[in-house]
Design a protein that fits this description.
By secondary structure, this protein is an alpha/beta fold. It contains 15 helices and 13 strands. The protein is globular, with a radius of gyration of 19 Å. Bound molecules: NADP nicotinamide-adenine-dinucleotide phosphate.
Amino acid sequence: MSDRKVIAVVGARGAQGGGLSRAILADPDGGFAVRALTRYPDKEEAQALAAAGAEVVQADLDDQASLERAFAGAHGAYCLTNFWEHFSAEKEIEQAHKQAAAAKAAGLQHVIWSTLEDTRDYIPVDDDRMPTLQERFKVPHFDAKQEAHAAFTDAGVPTTFLHTAFYWENFIYFGAGPQRDSDGNLALTFPMGEAKLPGIAAEDIGKAAYAIFRGGSRFIGESVFISGENLSGTEFAAAFTEALGEEVVYNDVDPDVYRSFGFPGADEMGNMFQFKRDFESHYAGARVRSEALELVPELQDFETWLAANKGRIPLG
Ligand SMILES: NC(=O)c1ccc[n+]([C@@H]2O[C@H](COP(=O)([O-])OP(=O)(O)OC[C@H]3O[C@@H](n4cnc5c(N)ncnc54)[C@H](OP(=O)(O)O)[C@@H]3O)[C@@H](O)[C@H]2O)c1
């Protein structure tokens, strides 16, 4: 254990960090060890990681001293924020700065920052094609993550910027899956026209991150983009129809209609889908399955993921 490179994993109880933790633990001869960070070491997912061989350490992204303690002596860290816990871009940026400062204080040799594009590079704040949110953002949970790159680069932290994609698990947990309309027919609703939506099995993000830590110096300072498969709404609906044995139609709505749905974050999600639709060549164009396959040879495509997970999708 002592000669292994310790990776401090923020969000180890969650989707991305859990996937990374499991990828490292599944490779006991790989030379890496997991230090799982959580505010709740007693919770089931943390205990499961401990039982599988992880060191579990209490840390809070709002408490820099706790991060410094948790990063001390580690080789690297997987850093992320969870926008959906507080819905605040400014808080994501603050939490990124705390992680970067703690990484610097600990002298980490390799950090992965889980990130997304700054949509304002494509659609400036004063552009009224979509509403400005939280005063200075278009897609706050995207823009904040990219704005936070400076926290790592300014501190001189050796960082890889891992640009993730839409998790297909959103069809299970996020209410994004097919829903029954008033006639009882299943429809998949999002405002993307026929643009392709890059997606990925959340577990594969962690596997990609493990490959990046294994690759080490060749990834430092680099931006990496991943996707399991890029599919249009029509293609998603066809895959659901085939897997569920019941017709699912794609219901392409206008982004303004989607923003008006009223669920928490509907405006944010409407802007996000509109960005992905209107800047498809940049967003989907950057996420190429064949490149992600080099990191994760067993990378799932949507059909494979759906076959394994269709029973978990609530068909409301
Ligand atoms: N859903 C998608 O399609 C998608 C796609 C790309 C990117 N993302 C991004 O993914 C991020 C969330 O990552 P995830 O999906 O892996 O998370 P998740 O499964 O929702 O779990 C959240 C994780 O964040 C940790 N966390 C949150 N606040 C914390 C704090 N104050 N201190 C310490 N840990 C904290 C939690 O740790 P404890 O509770 O154990 O303390 C937990 O492990 C979001 O920012 C989102 O924008 C999501």
